[in-house]
Amino acid sequence: MDAITADDVHKSYGSIKAVDGISFKVQKGEVYSFLGPNGAGKTTTVEMLEGLRKADRGEIRVLGEEPWHEASKLGRTVGVMPQDFRFIERITSREAIRYYCSLFSVRDKTKELLSLVDLEEVQNVQFQNLSGGQKQKLGICLALINDPELIFLDEPTTGLDPKARRKIWDLIRKLKDEGKTVILTTHYLEEAEMLADRVAIMDHGKIIAEGSPGEIINRMGKGRKLTVPYGEKLQEYLSKDLKLDCNRTGDSISVSIHSNKDVINILDFAEKNGIELTSLSLKEDTLEDIFVDLIAEKEGTS
Ligand SMILES: Nc1ncnc2c1ncn2[C@@H]1O[C@H](COP(=O)(O)OP(=O)(O)OP(=O)(O)O)[C@@H](O)[C@H]1O
Ligand SMILES: [Mg+2]
Known about the structure:
Blueprint: E1 2-13, E2 16-27, E3 31-35, H1 42-49, E4 57-62, H2 71-74, E5 78-81, H3 93-103, H4 110-116, H5 132-143, E6 150-154, H6 162-177, E7 181-185, H7 189-195, E8 198-203, E9 206-211, H8 213-220, E10 224-229, H9 232-241, E11 246-249, E12 252-257, H10 260-272, E13 281-284, H11 287-299
Parallel strand pairs: 3-7, 3-8, 5-6, 6-7
Antiparallel strand pairs: 1-2, 1-4, 8-9, 10-12, 10-13, 11-12
Helix pairs in contact: 3-4
Residues 13, 16, 18, 36, 38-44, 83 line the site of adenosine-5'-triphosphate.
């Protein structure tokens, strides 16, 4: 069953088309991720789904309801962690959670939520004195107070240290295991590739690619890339003789290969010409490689 359906949704601010006719569906229990450069329209999209902003045009249903008109009803089953989460400066983490529990008329879950995101140590610290990552963790806590079936997380791991980020990944996996639907906005492509069942890549208000990370990589990936140390002679051989697509970055050349034969030819050439291959790597395109190519194509830079 669908948790969310959006059909031809538009939102403009003056002449800026923040969201320009997007349609998508999210099934219950899915982790669905919005990706895209700054200003692509991700936050505007999720805020319309959350009932915080009214769409100019198009149909949206969230858990069967129209979010703008049914925002208060949806508030009981939906959790929201906004981008750049802020709270009352002088309230401590413990007080904030306790207050939200009373707002939602649920039992006091302060202890378990503090431990869920590792905030016990700073439970008595005022919001203004928490680190950036701690503030974000508190934001996630508050989104989970009402045990929501659908959770919106807008850049939950931005600015977190690697350990804290892993903790949030574990939490998202746990929410998924519990059958919750998670809408995850992120700039970390590897995070989406790892956690999301499906992703939507947005640019200039449009969805320019959608599917599971694996599908997108199969459909749009350029296959395998071999990276070797840069050398003039080697570069010439790769592009002129083998006619392969080469890309030089710093001291290395990345080359798109079509078959194992290409690799054998390259190694053979290096051997015959006394070229020392001090490093060598072969890898498939990642979601990040595809994302960078897609956005570059749109900007006309590749
Ligand atoms: N309230 C507003 N008034 C005017 N313009 C707005 C408003 N909110 C967003 N915009 C504009 O709409 C566009 C989309 O913004 P949005 O915040 O949805 O992007 P985003 O994909 O979330 O970007 P980021 O990755 O930086 O968070 C941007 O050009 C932004 O400047
Ligand atoms: Mg945003």
